[in-house]
Amino acid sequence: MKRLGILAGFFVILMFAGCKEKTEDLKDSRINLNGKWVLVYSCVDGGPNTTAWLEIDSTTIRSCAKQPGTETYTTLKGTIRPADTYGNYKIDWSNGYNQNASYPVGVLKLLSLIDPSTQSTQCYTTNPGVSPNPQCQF
Fold it and tell me: Taxonomically, which superkingdom (predicted)?
């Protein structure tokens, strides 16, 4: 009987320890994406490519990108919202375009934006040393 009591006590301790880990995992899943993000050349290397930026503030996301073959930049505003608790997001842009996003991606913890029609991916990193182009009107 004494062994059964010890075994039951040990089981209760393990159960509480398991619950504590799950609570901490849930807290870690609430990621703050606020800030300025710069496009990178590759989702693997992560080096900055100063042709596009994102600015995220709560649920508002703004994009600024250089138009190919020109020296002009265009901006676009949208809404970003979590799609689940695993770091997946949905972006609804003001021009009607919808996009998926994931964070973190890779060891560099990049923010990836996925084009649902072509499945192509663009990755962004927070890099305070690479400011947005002055033409970007955030």
Answer: Bacteria
Contact 79, 60 (CB under 8 A): yes
What are 65's two structure tokens?
A: 């990108």
The whole-model pTM stands at 0.75
Alpha-carbon distance values, 124 to 10, 24, 50 (Å)? 47, 27, 11
pLDDT digits (tens, 9 = 90+) for 76-132: 999 999 998 889 999 999 999 999 999 999 889 999 999 888 889 999 999 878 999
In this structure, how many other beta carbons lie within 10 angstroms of the beta carbon of residue 28? 9
